[in-house]
Amino acid sequence: MPDGFLCYTKGDAAKNSWMIRHLTERAQHEGLRLRLVFAEDLAKDVGSPKFVFQRSRRGDLSQKWENQGARVLNSAQVTGITNDKYATFCYLNKQNIPTVESILFDDLTNLPDEKNPPFLPLIAKPLDGHGGVGVELVNTLDKWAEICRKKPRPFLAQPVMTVGYDLRVYVLFGQPYAAILRTSQRDFRSNFSLGGQVRAVATPADCKAMIAKLQQTMPMDFCGVDFLKDGQGNLKIGEIEDAVGCRMLYQETNLDIVRDFVAMAAKEIKK
């Protein structure tokens, strides 16, 4: 029975007990032994796994395990790029995949100018945020000046996209698995964790094409790709979620993405 790690941070593990239990049970069903490990403890020698289900967003740990010969899902490449929103923007641009314009402000190369925002309105967000945390709508010069003074740097500025369209496409081993449209009537952020409304929809052809192109250079095992629309109705990738949450998928469909992910992973691991 192949031995593997399920890696979380301690904080995320405390909030994801159902996911941990389901992953572990499905792994056992598929003939895999899965051991929960915490990213904070991995400075210690905990052995060399044959495979890792990586949910900690720690690309350095993924690289360490890959160097030892383990199969890491998602890979160090995916985890390293997607958990830095500016790195994601640069990578997608390099691959000529439509993405939301992102301007990086920091204390070294591009300080924000209180009197000259890159555009208005705009969205200011941290490079490594999740679930809408730290994301702010800026629609006045006064608000921009406040952001320049108080926002922890580095941060990104992005143009405001079409309100009411935030489409997450779940991807398993490079193939679109399901799509959930998120909307909100009370917040410019449509995150499910912040009270956004959700419903299952068909995956648009444009999204499928972008995922297929991205998969050629950055293979994704289990991700969520978030699509937004610009003012002309063009779809663009907003961000990619590495340790993607699945609550809204289970709420809105009869699909079991964890079961299907583990079954597909097991076939590859056992080869």
The total of helices stands at 9
According to DSSP, the number of beta strands is 13
Could you tell me the radius of gyration in angstroms? 19 Å
Largest beta sheet, briefly?
A: 5 strands, antiparallel
- By CATH, the superfamily of the largest domain comes out as ATP-grasp fold, B domain
Beta-strand percentage range: 25-35%
Quickly give the structural class: alpha+beta
Q: Which blocks of ≥5 consecutive residues have pLDDT under 50?
A: 189-194
Mean pLDDT: 92
Helical content band: 25-40%
Distance from N terminus to C terminus (CA atoms, Å) equals 12 Å
- Named CATH topology of the largest domain: D-amino Acid Aminotransferase, Chain A, domain 1
Shape: globular
SSE topology:
Blueprint: E1 3-8, H1 10-15, H2 17-29, E2 33-38, E3 51-54, H3 59-67, E4 71-73, H4 76-82, H5 85-94, E5 103-105, E6 122-126, E7 136-138, H6 141-150, E8 155-159, E9 166-172, E10 175-183, E11 197-201, H7 205-217, E12 222-229, E13 235-241, H8 247-252, H9 257-269
Parallel strand pairs: 1-2, 1-3, 3-4
Antiparallel strand pairs: 5-8, 6-7, 6-8, 9-10, 9-12, 10-11, 12-13
Helix pairs in contact: 2-9, 3-4
Word description of this protein:
The protein has 271 residues and is an alpha+beta fold. It folds into 3 domains: 3-80 and 265-269, Rossmann fold (3-Layer(aba) Sandwich); 103-159, Dna Ligase, domain 1; 162-255, D-amino Acid Aminotransferase, Chain A, domain 1 (2-Layer Sandwich), CATH 3.30.470.20. Helix content is 32%, strand content 26%. It is built from 9 helices and 13 strands. The strands form 3 sheets. It has a 5-stranded antiparallel beta sheet, with helices on both faces. It has a 4-stranded parallel beta sheet with strand order 2-1-3-4, with helices on both faces. Strands 5-8-6-7 form a 4-stranded antiparallel beta sheet, covered by helices on one side. α2 crosses α9 and α3 runs antiparallel to α4 (76-82). The longest helix has 13 residues, at 17-29. 37% of the residues are buried. Residues 189-194 have low confidence and may be disordered.
